């Protein structure tokens, strides 16, 4: 195996945490980024516990200067970047008539602009290693609803952004793909169910069953299943895959 280094944002929980753990099997060093340092330390400890190298960076991706600093620290620690996985995101589920300008701006800053800035700053290093970028989008982009207007719009923008980077990457030797999860069983989703149960007075199991019926699927996806797809897309086996937006949704999206 050649020496390879990956940056994973949103690595303190959910899909990002599982991705960092999974990539540690294929990469020689993982840079884990999020705000909650204690959780990052736990995930890094898990990676180090099985002989991997992990470096944590506590950063608020809402801050425009964070991206350049993360790339500088990653290069300082490991000397190269082979993969960038943009997972971090915090977009509220709110009706389009109620969401404020500030909430739109905050959501765009963290999920869209931080991913864009990280890709820009990491690009020269990714060119050196003929590396790869993953942007986490989501199936909401293909099925916008009033209550998911922000995440749907931002995911659609990410799909376009990923494609633009992929086009640039054809000449620069960098592969870029978007991954579109459907409903994945993470803390964010658990919290949403808890909140809905309190608001409606219904049992969480009942709400969960109704939601799955609405999605038209049998179960939620696991974060580890998304991590496995990301690992494949970053692998040598996927060397002819670039510029795609790949769903992992258990069949939630009914169109083809
Ligand atoms: N779960 C799903 O069903 C689903 C479906 C489609 C797409 N997605 C996408 O997948 C990604 C991960 O979702 P998840 O369900 O795994 O959610 P999650 O468990 O809430 O993870 C979100 C991650 O983003 C980080 N983050 C949020 N705001 C940040 C900030 N300002 N600066 C730095 N890091 C920040 C969080 O870390 P800290 O709080 O420690 O900063 C956390 O690690 C999101 O982009 C989401 O849109 C999820």
Structure description:
There is one protein chain. The chain is an alpha/beta fold and 256 residues long. The model has no long low-confidence stretch (mean pLDDT 97). The protein has helices at residues 14-23, 37-49, 66-78, 101-129, 149-172, 187-200, 204-215, 223-234, and strands at 5-9, 29-34, 54-58, 83-86, 132-136, 175-181, 245-248. The termini are far apart. The chain has two domains: 5-183 and 222-248, 3-Layer(aba) Sandwich (Rossmann fold), CATH 3.40.50; 185-220. 50% of the residues lie in helices and 14% in strands. The relative contact order is 0.14. α1 (14-23) links the parallel β1 (5-9) and β2 (29-34). The longest helix is centred in the middle third of the chain and has 29 residues, at 101-129. α4 (101-129) runs parallel beside α5. Strands 3-2-1-4-5-6-7 form a seven-stranded parallel beta sheet, with helices on both faces. It binds NADP nicotinamide-adenine-dinucleotide phosphate. NADP nicotinamide-adenine-dinucleotide phosphate is lined by residues 10, 12-16, 34-36, 39, 59-62, 87-91, 110-111, 136, 138, 181, 183-184, 186-189. NADP nicotinamide-adenine-dinucleotide phosphate (NAP) binds at residues 10, 12-16, 34-36, 39, 59-62, 87-91, 110-111, 136, 138, 181, 183-184, 186-189.
């Amino acid at each position: 195996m050649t020496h390879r280094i990956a940056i994973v944002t949103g690595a303190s929980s959910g899909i990002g945490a599982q991705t960092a753990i999974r990539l540690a099997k294929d990469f020689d060093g993982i840079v884990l980024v999020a705000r909650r340092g204690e959780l990052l330390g736990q995930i890094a400890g898990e990676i180090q516990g099985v002989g991997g190298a992990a470096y944590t960076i506590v950063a608020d991706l809402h801050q425009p200067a964070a991206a350049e600093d993360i790339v500088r620290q990653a290069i300082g620690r490991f000397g190269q970047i082979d993969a960038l996985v943009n997972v971090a995101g915090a977009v509220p589920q709110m009706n389009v008539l109620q969401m404020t300008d500030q909430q739109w701006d905050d959501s765009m800053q963290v999920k869209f602009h931080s991913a864009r800035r990280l890709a820009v700053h990491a690009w020269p290093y990714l060119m050196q290693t003929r590396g790869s970028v993953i942007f986490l989008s989501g199936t909401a982009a293909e099925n916008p609803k009033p209550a998911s207007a922000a995440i749907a719009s931002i995911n659609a923008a990410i799909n376009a952004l990923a494609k633009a980077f992929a086009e640039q990457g054809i000449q620069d030797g960098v592969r870029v793909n978007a991954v579109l999860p459907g409903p994945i069983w993470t803390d964010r989703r658990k919290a949403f169910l808890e909140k809905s149960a309190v608001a409606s007075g219904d049992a969480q199991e009942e709400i969960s069953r109704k939601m799955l019926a609405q999605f038209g699927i049998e179960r939620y996806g696991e974060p580890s299943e998304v991590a496995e797809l990301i690992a494949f897309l970053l692998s040598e086996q996927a060397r002819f895959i670039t510029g795609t937006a790949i769903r992992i949704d258990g069949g939630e999206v009914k169109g083809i």
